[in-house]
Design brief:
The chain contains 8 helices and 15 strands. It is of the alpha+beta class.
Length: 285
Amino acid sequence: RIAYVNGRYVPHATAGVHVEDRGLQFSDGVYEVIAIAGGRPIDMTGHMERLARSLRELRIAMPMPARPLRMVMREVVRRNRVRNGIVYLQVNRGVYRRDHPFPPAAVPPSLVVTARSGLGPSAAVTEEGVRVVTVPDQRWARRDIKSVALLPNVLAKQAAREAGAYEAWQVDADGAVTEGTSTNAWIVTRDGTLVTRPLGDDILAGITRHTLIALARADGIPVEQRAFTVDEAKAAREAFTSSTTLLALPVVRIDDAVVANGAPGSITRRLRELYHIHMAGAGGE
Ligand code: PMP
């Protein structure tokens, strides 16, 4: 395997950033994960826009213009022979003697790009659906920025796995679900409306979320962007959780409550189908 690190293509096994890299020392960096399906990137424009926004919000410079950046990603995908998988990109504020304030403007950001084969959970997991557990949302107040500071997400995901669940849905002080640790949370109400939390600084603007809303609306499925509580989710007709790697993954249990009849719902299945069509068609670029 090959990785790209600050201008060089290097063996993945020995690839690394400097010990004074601010990504290492302060988690002072942002990232993106982009799906590769049939050798092509999915929703690349949305990912590049979100990257630019995350960097702007943190006042980190773009490591290079968008076009060469896309070429680097294409090259890493090519060199790793990825047909179906992911490309990972991370930009850190750069390398400088450890000190909290920003380094001088002349210090360039660092850039790491990796790629690997394999996309999403097994077909069996998708067919059966998964369990989520709910945990208090302990993250900072700027979850709209795709920061690499993911410690609360890591701890919540680990708690889920130790409870035998696939994902943790994080819950705000009002008892409403914000999002998963690496996914956006959705329900389908009894009357067939798709519900997901509105964008704001309390959740990440998932690219899959954006695409699913567009696909649902085009298919005549009503969509409401509003907060929903854990209790409402437990009583919902369907639930699922979405990300670049999982698409729309059916959720069939929330804590100890079985959702509907405990099998993936028809709207979730329909959205997965629409997403596959999207990936096979206009999804590239
Ligand atoms: N929320 C969080 C906290 C995430 O980390 C992710 C995955 N990066 C998502 C939602 C889903 O975003 P996307 O659909 O862009 O993968």
